[in-house]
Amino acid sequence: MVNHQSISNIYVFTSDKDAELLTIAAQNGFPVVDEVSDSNALYLLKKDGKLSLQADIDGDLINASVDFISAEMEHRLKQGHGKNQALAKAIGLNKKSGLRIVDATAGLGRDSFILASLGCDVLMVERSIPVALLLADGLVRAKENEQIQSVISRLSLKVDNSEIIINALNEKPDVIYLDPMFPERKKSAKVKKEMQLLQRLHGHETDDDTLLQSALQSAKRVVVKRPKGAEPFCSKPPSHVIETKKMRYDVYMCF
User: Fold this and answer.
1) Cα 187 from chain centre
2) Distance between CA atoms of 39 and 100, rounded to whole angstroms?
């Protein structure tokens, strides 16, 4: 696997020489260790049968993993109110079904999964190799669950810089979806620390302007997820806004 970013202090932790973890280490050039000892490092490991990324955040060991069959995702599916939810309206599902979507900042894939559950075909693009490994692991495990196999079949994953993928698209997707990591969302402490873990991998992105421009030139609609009260992404006013109590979706119609 080709590393498309500069990564330092990432280790694979396995005390029992787990074959999958050793393969991940060999393919990506991550050092293998049998103890977690560096509080400034990030560790790929197995936790509760899932590939997990672990970091020390303010003295707490925080783990991030992708679990499409978790209680949290089940709750989101049940409480999302289908195509009447804000995300679905922002994407345009209240007017058209079966949309083709590029989630250009996939992260842990939660919004991609919700969109796939609503019948969209979603290409997840993730530039961070460790996070992409979590996504791939989550997809493999989810395919074993018969109840959501049809949802998972509508999800695909590419590991690369989003602009490269967007600019190479042969056909315009219906929607490009962006969930920029900054500014940090105002959620629970647990989520904040999970976000801090991901921020260690991505750093402060410097290509927001070119990413948005590529998206606007390559899709019929661009949707940007924003914290409520935040400035528009790259200071570009949207065509319209869909708001919830805690956040909003800025919608850019591309003509």
Assistant:
1) 17
2) 41
User: Looking at the 3D structure of the chain, how many domains does it have?
Assistant: 2
CB neighbours of 213 closer than 8 A, spacing ≥ 6?
A: none
In this structure, the number of other CB atoms found within 10 A of the CB of residue 40 comes to 9
Q: Give the three-state DSSP class for 158.
A: strand
For 103-147, write each residue's pLDDT tens digit. Answer: 999 999 999 999 999 999 999 999 999 999 999 999 999 999 888
Is residue 112 a contact partner of residue 155, using CB atoms and an 8 Å limit? yes
Place of tokens 């998972």: 152
Q: Domain containing 27: what range?
A: 10-64
Domain match, 152 and 194 both = yes
**Which pTM does this prediction carry?**
0.89
Strand 42-47 to strand 10-13: parallel, antiparallel, or no bridges (unpaired)?
parallel
Residues 6+ apart with CB under 8 A from 168: none
Rounded distance between C-alpha atoms, residue 7 and residue 244, angstroms? 36
Q: Which one, of 62, 18, 20, 66, lies nearest residue 43 by Cα?
A: 62
136 secondary structure, DSSP code: H
